[in-house]
Write a structure and sequence with these properties.
With 117 residues, the protein is mainly alpha-helical. The protein is 44% helix and 9% strand. Strands 1-2 form a two-stranded parallel sheet. The chain has a two-stranded antiparallel sheet with strand order 3-4. The chain is elongated and about 80 Å long.
Length: 117
């Protein structure tokens, strides 16, 4: 009987810890951000400074606006419990990538900004 009670309490603690581990980047304070593995004081300050300019719309917006956050680190942060608007990062939430193509002259051009002649 005592073993069942202890096992039940242990299970409850694990479930509660998992539920509390989720930290939304748009709502968290510096201490909560620092609690995420991979985010230290410098990165949490950078996140909060960017958030002052406006909330992060999605993971792509977060990756584009916060220096040092790329696709790989975003995945790791999401696995550690960070969310954007309550959503974990998924493979489809990747930041849009810039497409660079070489012109006939061999000069790299940004396809998004270059015009076709």
């Amino acid at each position: 009987m005592l073993k069942k009670i202890i096992a039940g309490l242990f299970g409850l603690v694990i479930v509660m810890t998992a539920a509390l581990a989720q930290v939304d980047v748009n709502k968290a304070d510096q201490a909560a951000l620092d609690g995420i593995k991979g985010i230290g004081p410098t990165r949490s300050k950078a996140i909060l400074e960017e958030r002052k300019k406006g909330v992060f719309k999605d993971w792509g917006d977060f990756e584009n606006r916060v220096s040092g956050i790329g696709e790989k680190s975003a995945v790791k942060l999401s696995e550690a419990g960070l969310t954007v608007n309550g959503e974990p990062r998924s493979a489809s939430a990747a930041a849009p990538k810039k497409v660079i193509a070489k012109s006939k002259a061999g000069v790299a051009e940004d396809k998004a900004t270059s015009s076709k002649n």
